[in-house]
Amino acid sequence: MAMQITTGTSELRDITKMERIGAHSHVHGLGLDDRLEPRANSQGLVGQAKARKAAGMILKMVQEGKIAGRAMLFAGPPSTGKTAIALGMAQSLGPDVPFTMIAASEVFSLSMSKTEALTQAFRRSIGVRIKEETELIEGQVVEIQIDRSLTGATKTGKLTIKTTDMETVYDLGMKMIEALTKEKVLAGDVIAIDKTSGKVTKLGRSFAQSRDYDAMGADTKFVQCPEGEIQKRRTVVHTVSLHEIDVINSRTQGFLALFAGDTGEIKPELRNQINAKVAEWREEGKAEIVPGVLFIDEVHMLDIECFSFLNRALEGELAPLVIMASNRGMARIRGTKFRSPHGLPMDLLDRVLIVSTKAYSEEDIQQIIQIRCQEEDVQLTPDAANVLTSMAMSTTLRYALNLIACGRVVARKRKAEQVDVEDLRRAYTYFMDEKRSVQWLKEQQGSLVFEEAGEPTDELMDST
Ligand SMILES: Nc1ncnc2c1ncn2[C@@H]1O[C@H](COP(=O)(O)OP(=O)(O)O)[C@@H](O)[C@H]1O
Ligand SMILES: [Mg+2]
């Protein structure tokens, strides 16, 4: 039995995401010029020129559709902008190019197998751009007539609709009557009805009706009465990800699962059917594949099974660009006894373009702190800015950036507008950075619960 595969509606894509101030919310792009040269300070990114340029080149290849099924790795010490640059790439992708971000450890915490979690992440990152012909009824409403049955339980009706050239009467069923009532359609409105979905869109009031001004609000939009045929064909283009098609068509889930984010496992047979259908659509010219980007942060947290899955999945026909980030130097590959650069097995490393990030200069740090202060709407006194910069140099950038918000809270307590050195000093004593924390742990030896360290621990990449 051939199954009907649906792709949902374009409305599904219009869910607006909530914006808030996060660690990377100041990043709006890669800050490159037309020749892909990094500007010193642009779109929220500062310095790290080589890595940004490399990211820009790879992005260019993605946009030209030349790169899919490839992988790149950002390797560098903590707090050197690996995640920030990857997110900058995401912002520079087109609006319908999918970007998915997962932290490697999520793969183990979801209520599904590791490979299913990775498969879903892969399929989220592949877009299918679908061209659909829809039939529209478009015209100015002349009259809507609704008849109730004696009991009032059922309604029937008639809709008279016209263009400048013709006029037609349509019979209305219950569903159509409901849709028209919901949109508050009146005689004199210009409307469009999608014939397949039955969706009613109010385009505006007809100019001919503009004289009954007392009947409408100030925001009423006036439009011309359409010309020509009432029934029209239109092509609409919308992009959905393979994962969305999977979920919409999986019987147990339904598309509401997309909102809940709880999609469970999807049967391989269904995926095969969908792949076959998409291939068919491509041949008929009804659909195009839009390879997107999958970003796996802290990739050294994956284990050997996940890595071998990645290796195989990257060779598949429908593979996105995979960007990974790791802050490990030589590290044990999870699930094995072997150590390897960045915690990645050699066969995977072999197919990866590696981009390294380096520790920032003092100037760069100064500017990043400035950008973050603007983003968080915090004012530092010039002295405090200098102190924070040197704190960032001796601890990490991330620690210093965290102190901005803490400093503000302390300053507020003494009702000051600006954060001063003293506020930072306080914040510094309240919150430890990593080095002091390690020192403290050593001093407390015995009074805290320690784990036995059997094997040599992984080494972090050093920032010096
Ligand atoms: N080049 C940069 N320009 C602006 N902000 C940056 C830059 N590099 C890092 N940051 C910011 O510094 C913080 C730490 O960087 P992050 O990207 O999380 O480091 P990593 O992922 O390498 O550990 C984040 O808040 C990030 O947005
Ligand atoms: Mg990171």
Automatic annotation (TrEMBL):
The UniProt record lists the keyword rRNA processing: no
All copies of domain AAA+ ATPase, residue ranges: 68-359
Localization of this protein: Nucleus
Main location: nucleus
Listed SMART domains: AAA (SM00382)
Gene3D superfamilies assigned: 1.10.8.60, P-loop containing nucleotide triphosphate hydrolases, RuvB-like helicase, domain II
E.C. code: 3.6.4.12
InterPro entries: AAA+_ATPase (IPR003593), P-loop_NTPase (IPR027417), RuvB-like (IPR027238), RuvB-like_C (IPR041048), RuvBL1/2_DNA/RNA_bd_dom (IPR042487), TIP49_P-loop (IPR010339)
Catalytic activity: ATP + H2O = ADP + phosphate + H(+)
Keyword flag tRNA processing: no
Listed GO biological process terms: chromatin organization; DNA repair
Gene Ontology MF annotations: ATP binding; ATP hydrolysis activity; DNA helicase activity
Top-level taxon of origin: Eukaryota
GO annotations of cellular component type: Ino80 complex; Swr1 complex
Keywords (A to Z) from UniProt: Activator, ATP-binding, Chromatin regulator, DNA damage, DNA repair, Helicase, Hydrolase, Nucleotide-binding, Nucleus, Transcription, Transcription regulation
Subunit details: May form heterododecamers with RVB1. Component of the SWR1 chromatin remodeling complex, the INO80 chromatin remodeling complex, and of the R2TP complex.
Function: DNA helicase participates in several chromatin remodeling complexes, including the SWR1 and the INO80 complexes. DNA helicase which participates in several chromatin remodeling complexes, including the SWR1 and the INO80 complexes. The SWR1 complex mediates the ATP-dependent exchange of histone H2A for the H2A variant HZT1 leading to transcriptional regulation of selected genes by chromatin remodeling. The INO80 complex remodels chromatin by shifting nucleosomes and is involved in DNA repair. Also involved in pre-rRNA processing.
Family: Belongs to the RuvB family.
Protein name: RuvB-like helicase
Organism in which the protein naturally occurs: Psilocybe cyanescens
Lineage: Eukaryota, Fungi, Dikarya, Basidiomycota, Agaricomycotina
